[in-house]
Amino acid sequence: MRFLLRPGWVATTVLVVLFATASYTLLAPWQFRRHHERSSTNAAVQASFTAAPVPLDRLGPGSEWRLATLIGSYVPEGEAIARLRTVEGEPAYEVLTPFRLTGGEVVLVDRGFVRPNEVTQVGDYPGPPAGQVSVVARVRADETDPEHRAAFSDQTNGGRRQVYAVDSRTVARATGLPIRPGYVQLEAGSPGVLGALPLPELDAGPFLSYALQWLAFGTMALLGLAYFTWREIKPGGVLAEPRPDRSRRRSVAAQIAEEEAAERAAHRV
Known about the structure:
By secondary structure, the protein is of the alpha/beta class. The chain is built from 5 helices and 9 strands; from the N terminus they run H-E-E-E-E-E-E-E-E-H-E-H-H-H. The longest helix has 42 residues, at 7-48.
């Protein structure tokens, strides 16, 4: 059992245990969470297909993807462009315009996407309609920029205000408007819509399969360590103490004499 204390074996054991622990406590749970999030999104989107739109103020927490009706007017001076977006596999910008409800509350509206022009900048697009309008949109939760970057104005894009995530909090800080948390995503045909954003695909994705694979990898690593440990404990293991080789301890002269004796015996025969 002394081989278990050898530096190489100790390092291997530590690495295997760390990998298995990460598989069970980090990697597999992460994929399970992603599977749960995708399943929840699919269920919410599927339910919205048959649910009639209702006024926004009647929707509470947990209403993401529900269709809501909003009556009010756009606030074009608070508009911002969400950059570095991808829609249907191609680069895009999303246009975010605050919308003041008739009751005075301000909501951030994602009017849809526009494609970059030939120099990869924001091209011209129609502004929002003036005056009071009624729109239908899907309730969405704010995105979060991991780097928490503030809005900025890019002179190469006509001085338009730009943000790195569709986040009502970032737009509120940049404009000074009291925008409520979350945002809404315009449906096709609503006043002010540009390129209507497509709904997410309703497939479960590979996350559950990935989670099971990480569990299997962690289990295989532990079983492999157990197997090789058992094999080395048995007599004759690869890491067992080497046995002396008597043939190598004989002198060269003795080996030559043994070969000559064998040849003479062969000639006598």
